[in-house]
Specification:
With 90 residues, the protein is an all-alpha fold. It has two helices and no strands. It has one domain. Residues 55-66 have a biased composition (Polar residues).
Length: 90
């Protein structure tokens, strides 16, 4: 015979909060309108402060910076030195 499970579901208690009446006002839309006006002004001010001379012209495609040489040159030189040393030993 299987053991009895003495677990019972918890009792659901009704919320005692007062009912809220519909006012017909969209509070979320009002909050967004208030917060978006200053944000929009700030964004416009920041856009006006951008330095237009710092924009890179990528019309020819992206450019590379730094060393324009062969990135494998050092490895190739080491391989060549090893080959030369092996030929001298044989």
């Amino acid at each position: 015979m299987a053991p009895r499970n003495e677990y019972s579901e918890p009792e659901v208690v009704e919320d005692d909060a007062p009912a809220v009446e519909e006012s017909g006002v969209d509070a979320q839309a009002e909050d967004e309108a208030v917060t978006n006006e200053p944000e929009a002004k700030q964004v416009q001010n920041e856009l006006g402060d951008l330095d237009q001379g710092n924009i890179i012209d990528n019309s020819d495609g992206p450019s590379t910076r730094g060393n324009k040489g062969d990135p494998m040159a050092a490895d190739k030189a080491i391989d060549q030195d090893i080959d030369n040393a092996e030929q001298e030993l044989s």
